[in-house]
């Protein structure tokens, strides 16, 4: 979902289901010539043909497929699998391939880059809370922290999943590699997954973290729903969409995780300067992600009359706007470290954010030199996400 800034996807287009089975030449060794007199191997049933669609994905076991056409009766195309010598010895079977392809589709459905951001954010906030109160560390709470992480991933899965269900037409233009748009995952299966994620997340949070955190969790799911689902579909309104993304990924995630961790340690909630900093910083960063997420999607947004800043102001202007906001964010972090040395470690804060800012300037220059091609825009957007991850990685150290 776009709440997680889901426009970027690292999944390679080679996993698209349009790829055709590759014909495997017959061998002419004596052993194979002798095999011509044996009965032909059984043909795959029609229901198994779909399992051959994603041979290029990394989970495929057998890639040697031969295509034969039946000459009697109709002109129905049949497929028979000819595994190489090693694959034959391993005993490849269609069921394992189906399972592998389903696993790959579900993983792409979850939008892995958003999961990384959620996981890094929650781990960084928990680590910060423990650093502030090391005497209260209780390793028996490890399982509770793990439950919290699973609940956050479930919430993330619900939000990005519900967005894909209602964006199939747009995704076929903008992100044809996504599993529903590519035909690798049915809409019915997608609904099952999002409802499972929502139910599992609510159950985990309600059972382990009390009414207040449960309320915050429900608020996040609600905002994710009205962002994508008609008749609300607030993603159509750029300012409202940006505020929702910044609220969920910026404020709710950081505040909720820190609050829940202090509660688990038996402490009342109190803002610390580092946590107030990261919450503010990431909220602004989430706003930048919300602005730049539409850059690779201009073609599909225009086709389906989705109004975004990128369609209104142009790709170049939005790239400059997002870069400018993020540079201001980095400058603010450097100034905070300089004027509050008693709170922050200047030896880490200043050089780290200076390096991040220089990297951003360089990537913006590369994008300009590439004339804002779709590939260059996608690379720029991926770099912004990498900067987002990097901020959480250094956070416990500042």
From TrEMBL:
Superkingdom of origin organism: Eukaryota
Biased composition (Low complexity): 1-21
Record region (Disordered): 1-24
Keyword presence, Transferase: yes
NCBIfam families found in the cross-reference section: PRK12887.1
Transmembrane segments: 146-166, 178-203, 209-227, 239-259, 271-292, 313-340, 346-367, 379-397
Keywords associated with the record: Chloroplast, Membrane, Plastid, Transferase, Transit peptide, Transmembrane, Transmembrane helix
Lineage, top ranks: Eukaryota, Viridiplantae, Streptophyta, Embryophyta, Tracheophyta
An example Gene Ontology biological process: vitamin E biosynthetic process
This protein's name: Probable homogentisate phytyltransferase 2, chloroplastic isoform X1
Presence of the UniProt keyword RNA-binding in the record: no
Pathway membership, UniProt: Cofactor biosynthesis; tocopherol biosynthesis
Species, as recorded: Phoenix dactylifera (Date palm)
Gene that specifies this protein: LOC120105149
Main location: membrane
Single annotated GO MF: prenyltransferase activity
């Amino acid at each position: 979902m776009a709440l997680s800034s889901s426009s970027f996807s690292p999944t390679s287009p080679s996993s698209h289901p349009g790829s055709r089975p590759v014909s495997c030449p017959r061998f002419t060794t004596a052993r194979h010539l002798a095999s011509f007199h044996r009965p032909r191997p059984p043909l795959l049933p029609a229901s198994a043909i779909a399992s051959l669609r994603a041979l290029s994905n990394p989970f495929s076991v057998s890639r040697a497929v031969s295509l034969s056409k039946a000459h009697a009766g109709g002109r129905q195309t049949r497929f028979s699998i000819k595994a190489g010598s090693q694959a034959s010895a391993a005993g490849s079977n269609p069921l394992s391939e189906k399972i592998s392809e389903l696993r790959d589709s579900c993983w792409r459905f979850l939008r892995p880059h958003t999961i990384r951001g959620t996981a890094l954010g929650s781990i960084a906030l928990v680590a910060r809370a423990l650093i502030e109160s090391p005497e209260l560390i209780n390793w028996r709470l490890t399982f509770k922290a793990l439950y919290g992480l699973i609940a956050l991933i479930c919430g993330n899965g619900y939000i990005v999943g519900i967005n894909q269900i209602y964006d199939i037409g747009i995704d076929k233009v903008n992100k044809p590699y996504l599993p529903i748009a590519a035909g690798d995952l049915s809409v019915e299966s997608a609904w099952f997954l999002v409802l499972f994620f929502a139910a599992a997340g609510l159950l985990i949070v309600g059972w382990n973290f009390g009414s207040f955190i449960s309320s915050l969790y429900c608020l996040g799911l609600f905002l994710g729903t009205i962002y994508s689902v008609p008749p609300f579909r607030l993603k159509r309104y750029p300012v409202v969409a940006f505020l929702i993304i910044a609220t969920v990924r910026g404020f709710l995630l950081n505040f909720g995780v820190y609050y829940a961790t202090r509660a688990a340690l038996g402490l009342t909630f109190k803002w610390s300067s580092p946590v107030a900093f990261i919450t503010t910083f990431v909220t602004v960063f989430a706003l930048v992600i919300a602005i730049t997420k539409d850059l690779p999607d201009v073609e599909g947004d225009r086709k389906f009359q989705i109004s975004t800043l990128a369609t209104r102001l142009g790709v170049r202007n939005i790239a400059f706007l997002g870069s400018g906001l993020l540079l201001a964010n980095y400058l603010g972090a450097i100034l905070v470290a300089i004027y509050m040395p008693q709170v922050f470690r200047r030896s880490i804060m200043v050089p780290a954010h200076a390096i991040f800012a220089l990297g951003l300037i360089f990537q913006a220059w590369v994008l300009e030199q590439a004339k804002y091609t779709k590939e260059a825009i996608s690379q720029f957007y991926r770099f912004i996400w990498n900067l987002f991850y990097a901020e959480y990685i250094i956070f416990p150290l500042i």
